[in-house]
């Protein structure tokens, strides 16, 4: 495991920890655009701790980071040489540097806070949002807390488990679609969805872990106490002022409410894949996700929207 960087003890951290396809991108944009004095990492999902604990394959992070470097080069032109890199904003410099480190070094050799340079000295608050952190066990969360010091706050966003799963299912097909081809027909999507539900394959079992909100919330509360907050995606969309008010009260951060409302008013992270459930598939989904929907609803004071 990497050693603790003493500079981390002097910083405060705000980290989004879940759940996948439950509004983590929306949370990131709200924090990045409306929280004053908070630097949200331009990569958004650093995947540092989930890779460190082998929740996510190391190869996936390296491949993703190399891909990000290609995108940065396409966007900015040459990204080699100190003089050229120094011409970019601090945020872009941070993005290039972090991707290089994650693409070429083992996570075990890196200090987490080092991924935020050269912006560390300019901000008291640092943050990112990686949904897979939700899957960390209690010992791993203790390690996270001990590495980053006492001023770490974790925020989770939850969503109706069936709605979250269907969003992940559509995203999977969006990624699988060859470039230039039309999205699959609704009939093909329904056939594949039914096979997933009937066979309960490995991908589906993996996705179900992101619906285990109660267990994850208990783990985070036990480790972080009052420094852990969770909200439903419905709350974030319908009452963003109340949500950021709660975050502000817990952390002491100030927010620009108008900017936060502006972020929520725009649709983001759409897959481009449309799916309409027939009665047969809806029945299968209700049977399969019924218990997890009931469990999720018991965590909030309103029924989670489908």
For the secondary structure, the number of strands is: 7
| Helical coverage, percent range | 40-55%
Alpha-beta classification: alpha/beta
Q: Number of helix segments?
A: 14
Query: Which regions have little confidence, pLDDT < 50, spanning 5+ residues?
Result: none
Shape: globular
Polypeptide structure, described:
- The chain is α/β, with parallel strands linked by helices and 306 residues long.
- It is built from 14 helices and seven strands.
- It has a five-stranded parallel sheet with strand order 3-4-1-5-6, sandwiched between helices. Strands 2-7 form a two-stranded antiparallel sheet.
- Helix 3 packs antiparallel against helix 5 and helix 6 crosses helix 10.
- The longest helix is centred in the first third of the chain and has 19 residues.
- It is globular and about 60 Å long.
- The N and C termini lie far apart (41 Å).
- The mean pLDDT is 93.
Concise overview:
The chain is of the alpha/beta class.
Helix and strand topology:
Elements: E1 12-16, H1 24-34, E2 35-36, E3 38-40, H2 48-52, H3 58-76, H4 82-86, H5 90-104, E4 125-129, H6 138-148, E5 152-158, H7 161-176, H8 186-199, H9 202-209, H10 213-224, E6 228-232, H11 233-238, H12 240-251, E7 254-255, H13 257-264, H14 279-297
Parallel strand pairs: 1-4, 1-5, 3-4, 5-6
Antiparallel strand pairs: 2-7
Helix pairs in contact: 1-13, 3-5, 6-10, 8-14
């Amino acid at each position: 495991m990497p050693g603790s960087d003493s500079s981390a003890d002097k910083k405060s951290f705000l980290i989004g920890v879940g759940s996948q396809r439950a509004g983590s991108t929306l949370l990131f944009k709200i924090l990045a655009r409306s929280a004053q004095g908070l630097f949200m990492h331009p990569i958004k999902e650093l995947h540092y701790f989930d890779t460190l604990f082998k929740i996510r394959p190391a190869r996936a992070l390296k491949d993703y980071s190399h891909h990000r470097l290609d995108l940065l080069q396409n966007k900015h032109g040459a990204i080699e040489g100190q003089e050229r890199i120094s011409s970019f904003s601090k945020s872009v410099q941070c993005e290039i540097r972090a991707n290089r480190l994650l693409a070429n070094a083992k996570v075990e050799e890196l200090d987490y806070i080092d991924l935020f340079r050269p912006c560390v000295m300019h901000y008291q608050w640092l943050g990112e949002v990686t949904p897979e952190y939700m899957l960390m066990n209690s010992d791993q969360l203790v390690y996270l807390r001990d590495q980053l010091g006492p001023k770490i706050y974790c925020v989770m966003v939850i969503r109706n488990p069936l709605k979250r799963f269907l969003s992940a299912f559509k995203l999977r097909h969006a990624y699988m679609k060859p470039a230039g081809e039309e999205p699959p027909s609704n009939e093909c999507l329904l056939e594949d969805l039914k096979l997933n539900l009937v066979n309960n394959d490995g991908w589906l079992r993996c996705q179900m872990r992101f619906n285990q909100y109660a267990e994850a919330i208990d783990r985070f509360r036990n480790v972080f106490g009052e420094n852990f907050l969770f909200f439903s995606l419905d709350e974030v969309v319908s009452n963003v002022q109340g949500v950021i008010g709660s975050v502000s009260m817990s952390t002491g951060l100030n927010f620009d409410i108008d900017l936060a409302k502006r972020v929520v008013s725009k649709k983001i992270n759409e897959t481009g894949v449309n799916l309409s459930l027939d009665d047969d598939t809806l029945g299968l989904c209700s049977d399969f996700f019924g218990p997890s929907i009931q469990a999720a609803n018991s965590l909030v004071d309103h029924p989670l929207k489908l």
